[in-house]
Amino acid sequence: MKYKITIRPEAENDIEEAFTWYEDKRLGLGFDFLLQIDAGIRFIERDPNIYKSEYKGTKKHLLKRFPYKIIYMVKEREIIIIAAIHSKRSHAVIKRRFH
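^ thats the sequence. predicted structure below, dont judge the formating
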């Protein structure tokens, strides 16, 4: 089944902030991060229900090379990316995005 991918603005901001942080650390590292985000989204797209549901039906995919997770939801034929945050960040970030 083909899914529509929607990246919420908050998630886009998460990705942009992480990109900038990594790029400041080492030229090109931010682009490596973006490649991992893209690979993660493509993995999720192939089988979005591979992960168990958590808070309010969200699911998470852990990136391989970076300590980040992609938080998403599946609604019928749509995958909604809610966040792309550091693995150590609190789930309170996700809870705030639902209010």
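Strands lie at 4-7, 59-62, 68-75, 78-86.
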